[in-house]
Structure formats: C-alpha cells, structure tokens
Amino acid sequence: MPRVRFDRLCVLLLDDNRHMLRLMEEILRAIGIRNVIAVTDAAEAFREMRIAPVDLAIVDWEMTPLSGPEFVKLVRTAKDSPNVFVPIIMLTAHTQMANVVEARDTGINDFLAKPVSPKSVLRRIVSVIGRPRPFVRTKTYFGPDRRRRQLPFKGPGRRKEDVVADEDGLSQDQVEALLNG
Amino acid sequence: MAGQSEGYIIRKNEPLADISEESSVDDAEMLRRAEEAVESLKAEYPEWVGHHLAALEDACRTIRAEPEASVPQLAAIADLSHDVKGEGTTYGYPLMTQLGASLHRFVTNMKACSTVQIEIIENHVSAMRVVIRERIEGDGGALGHEIVGSLEKAVAKFKA
After folding, report:
1. pLDDT digits (tens, 9 = 90+) for B57-107
2. Cα–Cα distance, A116 to B60 (Å, whole number)
3. Pair A12, A58: CB distance under 8 Å
4. Which residues of B are less than 8 Å from A126 in CB distance?
5. In CA terms, which of A52, B13, B139, B151 is 20 to 30 Å from B46?
6. Does B127 fall in a domain?
C-alpha cells in the first residue's frame, strides 16, 4: 500500500453539523493533514473547490438543502463542476445496504460509517488516495469504476453468504466488504 | 456494471505521484495523536450537547403553549435529534445516538402533535438529560437498556 504524504494533501470537509465537522478536522490535522477546508453547505463547497486544489472531499450524507448524494451527483455530472474526478468519501450513519448501493451509484469512491474513529478515517483516506480507481462512463453512470466485485442490486438475500444487512445497517467492515471486495 | 454496454474508461486515475511513496498503512504515532485529539473533544461533549437538549426542551414548551405552531417546532426537533443521533456514539455516548435515533424516527413527517405525542417527545429528551447528567457512557448496562426499552415500548404502543 502506498504511503500518503498527508502533509501535502488538501481535504475538503462538508457537513452541516459543526460538531462533527470539528471532530473530523481534529482527526485530519492530527494525522498530519495541514490543509483542511471545513464547510457547512454545498454551495460553499463548490466555491472552495473552484479556488483550492482539493485532493479529497469527505461529505456527510444527510444535509439540507442539498444532501450528500445530491452533492456528489452534481460534482460528477454538472457542466460547471469544479472537478468531476475529485475523490469523494461519503460519511454517514445510513449504512443499510440500499443506502450503500445508492451512495455507490452516485459516484463516491468510498464510504465511512459512523461512528468514526481515527483508524477508520486513516484507512479510508489511504485506500482512496493510495488505490485510486479509474473512472468509467456509461449511459447511466459516471464515476469510479464499481467493478471490484459483483454487487446485488435487489435487496438483501442474494449474497447472504457474504454480508448480512439488518435494519440497524452495515458495519464499516461490512461496507468495505461490499464496496471493495 | 457487468452487462451494461457502451461503458468505457475515460481516464485512468493514476496515484497522485507527488504525494505517494511505498510504506505501511498504519502509523501508530499518527493514530495515537488523533485518538488524543478525539478524547479531548469527547470531554467537552456533555457541555455542548446540553445546548441541543435545551433547544429540544424549548421546542417542547412552545408546542405545549402554542399547538398551532407545532410544525416548525417539530422540524427543529427532527434536526436536533438528527444531530444528537449522529454525534452520540462518536463522542462515547451510544445511548444518546439510540435516543436521538428513536426521537428522530418518531417525529419525522409528524405534522401535528397530540398530548400523547408531546409526552413521548418529552420523555425522550428527559432520558437524554439523565444520560448526560449521570455521564452514562457505553450502553449504560441494565439502566441503559431500561431507558431505551421503555421509550421504544411507548412509541410502539402509540403507533399500534
């Protein structure tokens, strides 16, 4: 696994909860990321992405007026997107299988399940930056290649031997197994 | 993706060469620093979550005093409970996440608030106060299960 020079990364944090934003910022700075841009809404995020060389965006799922998945879709597909290729990690407690698949299909690179820990944050960043995926365009999708493994599209049950989704959602390990193979 | 036609790779995403070199993934010292930073923030949690609880209590009082003004207050309760849900476990209080999640589920899409409903909301907020006042971290053991269980029963009974 390649080593990431955290001191040279520029990371954008997007979350409308200021306390989570602060926690994430503390974690990122503690692991050596000096250039952290923390914003609370999508419009501000777009503005920052136009003027700063953002290497990675960590985006919360549930926000208003624009949700995380809606923001990701805009980044990937809007004509005036500041950077359609920017790596994006979705941060959320919504780890039910349907949500993971939905987030994946908006074009995220990876998923970070709450509650976060410094270890889970570090591993996600190293995975996304150290193992970047090629981008793929189809009629219905633009984003990181999703073909690391065949994923079920129709609810739980087809891959019972791999992952069991319950109403409380998947754990970070289960999400990683589902997304990354 | 398999089976979809006309897909193509439009750019192979090369590693960011100026910031990548071979090494190990985990850095114990880096993680230790980050854990220390998180612990420091965790110590502040009971104080600032108190502001969320005060806002929830204000919303409940407004609903009781002005039932016709329920809709914006219920929206505020939904937002605040969502925040509590998202923050609790990360800051070492998973019971707060459970209570926040239960309250958020209960008020989502609620357009009016009966006496029974406002009581259930207030009971959730009171439970959160107990958790914070008594510093009940983790799952709270038997007490924690009792707190969450009784609220879930009340909600289930209301919805039955």
Report:
1. 999 999 999 988 899 999 999 999 988 988 898 888 999 999 999 999 999
2. 31
3. yes
4. 25
5. B151
6. yes
| Assigned domain for B49 exists | yes
pTM attached to this predicted model: 0.79
Could you give the angle at which helices A118-130 and B28-65 cross, rounded to 10 degrees? 110
Contact A26, A52 (CB under 8 A): no
The percent of chain B in helix, strand and coil, each rounded to the nearest 5, is 70, 5, 25
Each domain of chain A, given as residue ranges in start order, spans: 6-180
Q: For residue B102, give the CATH number of its domain.
A: 1.20.120
Q: Which of A8, A134, A150 sits opposite B13 (nearest CB)?
A: A134
The tens digit of pLDDT for each residue in A50-80 reads: 999 999 999 999 887 899 999 999 999 999 9
- When the candidates are 3.40.50.2300, 3.30.70.100, 3.40.50.920, 3.30.70.20, the CATH number that belongs to A6-180 is 3.40.50.2300
In a domain, B88, yes or no: yes
Contact flag B34-A129 (C-beta cutoff 8 Å) = no
What is the C-alpha separation between B89 and B66, in angstroms, rounded? 34
- Touching B: A residues 148-167, CB under 8 Å: 150
CB-based contact, B55 to chain A, within 8 Å: no
Question: Considering only alpha carbons, which residue of chain A is nearest residue B52?
Answer: A19
Q: Which residues 106-135 on chain A approach chain B with CB closer than 8 angstroms?
A: 114-119, 121-123, 126, 129-130, 132-135
B52 touches chain A (CB under 8 A): no
